[in-house]
Amino acid sequence: MTKAGAILRFLACGSVDDGKSTLIGHLLHLTGNLYDDQVAILEQESARLGTNGAGIDYSLLLDGLTAEREQGITIDVAYRYFATPQRHFIVADTPGHERYTRNMATAASRCSAALILVDARQGVLPQTRRHALICALMGIRRFLFVVNKMDMAGWSEQGFREVQAQCNRLAGDLERFGLPRAECVAVPVSALNGDNLVALSPNMPWYDGTTVMGWLHAVAPGEGMEHAAPRLPVQYVIKVARPGGAWQEGADGAFRRGGNGTFRAYAGTVVSGSLKRGDRVVVLPSGLRTRVREMWCGDRLVRQAVAGMAVALSLEGEHDVVRGDMIVAEDQRTELAHLFKVRLVWMDDQPLYSGRHYLFKGVAGTATAGITRIRGRIEPDSYQRLAADHFSLNDIGEAELALSLPIPFDPYAENRETGGFILTDRLSNATVACGMILHPLRRTATVRRQCEEIGPPERAAIKGQRPCVLWLTGFSGAGKSTIANCLERKLYTLGRHTMLLDGDNIRQGLNRDLGFTEAGRIENIRRIGEVAKLMTDAGLIVITAFISPFRAERDMVREILPGGSFVEIHVDTPLEECERRDPKGLYRKARQGEIPNFTGIDSPYEPPRAPALRLGTMARPVWECADAIIAYLREHGLLPE
To answer: What pTM did the predictor assign?
Structure first.
């Protein structure tokens, strides 16, 4: 029997037209979770839009978008809440089409069981395997394979047994892939007619197993997070506005005890485990040790808070605890790390390449994240790990991630709340991936930064200049190298210490192992950025001349340099003029297909949005462009007189 009052979160998934929405809608009807007026409206909608002839089309209960009803498919995730005398349920009706895999993955991350529908006539399809893999990767360990449309398969026991065997082999493949063994059950149904949904069907007397609702009632709701290690991410600090001043607006009267302005309470949701008054805790990342003094749930003082409860707690003593900190049990503290091996479900139309930077968002806060290495892609049909240098939309794979600061975490396999995260685009804030922390990387544990007797400011002072990077970007043939050479000659004449990094020269040495794919271009710029930083540490003015077509990589270099030392200069020559000049004959070869991935022809160029300087070379001589750069450096204090 299930725990009284336990809520089961589950999802329904499967290939297009397998009957997910019909199954859920019919379950709602058979379990008495539809009102009479809902049934009446459903009958009217079925007569107008339904696909079941004169009968009720239960899929219309879930497919709310016009496009879904017109095409008869699920696009967005639809959540429904329903209950029976035995327990409460939250069900997610997820899309079956491969294009909407990201929607399905998002829903799976919040569920502890899955109904995977399989057409009795077609058996296990590639999309079935994809969905089973995603569910398993997201931590779901309880699968019900619903073999639907038995009425169209002639109620055949042999047909069901064959599909059941395919489902068992699929479960075995997941285990061989390295995932924990899942609990798998198969049940034959007709979602349209209601067979084996809540009661055993006379149409299949050969089947005496569980029904769909019987399985849902019996399945455990998941590894209760209340039994995991205690974790409370601080989401809000309740405090007075200033010492001796008024209380923060909205603070409950129960919190104002003493009225001396020293009270602090830390609000958040207990994501796992339980905390009690008097427990010894550690605040991460600071490592502060203290005790829980009091806890409130709403305006009630409570002795204990369990997973899922939103509480405010006060700690013994006066401490600096801020939003993004995590309160954990002292004897079950979590790790801190900033380098991880992670698994990603890529959700963006723009591919993921090593070297790209995003925002990492988890329960422990936000940090800048850099993809340092793509370890490989997981083929969802064969469950094989394949070599890859990028992830495309809906790809699943493993990568290495470096954060800008250490965060407290648990591996996803141990705690889905503290081990899960999303990546967002830094400009648009759009979610580009959902991820799972597999484990930290400890390769830098023995590597420590060596303190130098002479630092960058002293090296710059002896040269009498401010080091910086002058980053010239633009199309091939725009004039970057010509301007860079002229600029270095002028700076040399002024007695300045410089170094010129040119794209062609660098690719003959340091980066000769890199190609011109998007991944190769990103790594090319990453290495150049690191070299440029070392040269600025030496006190040099560094001049670079690279196409550097992607904004993300130019921003990556900007971020590793001290503030104000990266000067982005757009050599803004139109593509048509660059192609007319074609000093190396590259455009002609690219047009003939001899040079793939050539910027401006079959690979994009992203111009700077707000460069420090924009130099047009159509009507401006080279020496004048160089003088404009020198004038800019003097105006901004980068070239002292």
So the answer is: 0.72
**548 is a catalytic site residue:** yes
Q: What is the C-alpha separation between 638 and 641, in angstroms, rounded?
A: 10
My answer on whether omega of the bond before 85 falls inside 30° of 0, hence cis, is: no
* CB proximity list for 588: less than 8 A, separation 6 or greater: 582
Give the angle subtended at the CA of 501 by the CAs of 499 and 507, to the nearest 5°.
145
pLDDT for position 162: 95
pLDDT at 65 over 50: no
Choose between 44 and 8: higher pLDDT: 8
Asked whether residue 251 carries a pLDDT value surpassing 70, the answer given is no
Which residue in 59, 109, 476, 548 is the catalytic one?
Answer: 548
Instruction: Give the HSE-up count for residue 125: Cα atoms under 13 Å, Cβ half-sphere.
Output: 18
- Best CA proximity match to 525, nearest among 505, 552, 543, 498: 552
**Rounded distance between C-alpha atoms, residue 29 and residue 631, angstroms:** 76
Which residue from 482, 449, 473 is spatially nearest to 529, judged by alpha carbons? 473
Q: What is the pLDDT of residues 257-289, one digit of tens each?
A: 544 555 778 999 898 888 999 999 999 988 899
Q: Is the dihedral of CA 305, 311, 316, 321 positive or negative?
A: positive
Report the chain's mean pLDDT, rounded to a whole number. 84
- Letter string b/e over residues 442-458, b meaning 16 or more CB atoms within 10 A of that residue's CB: eeeeeeeeeeeeeeeee
Cβ–Cβ < 8 Å for 128, 98: no
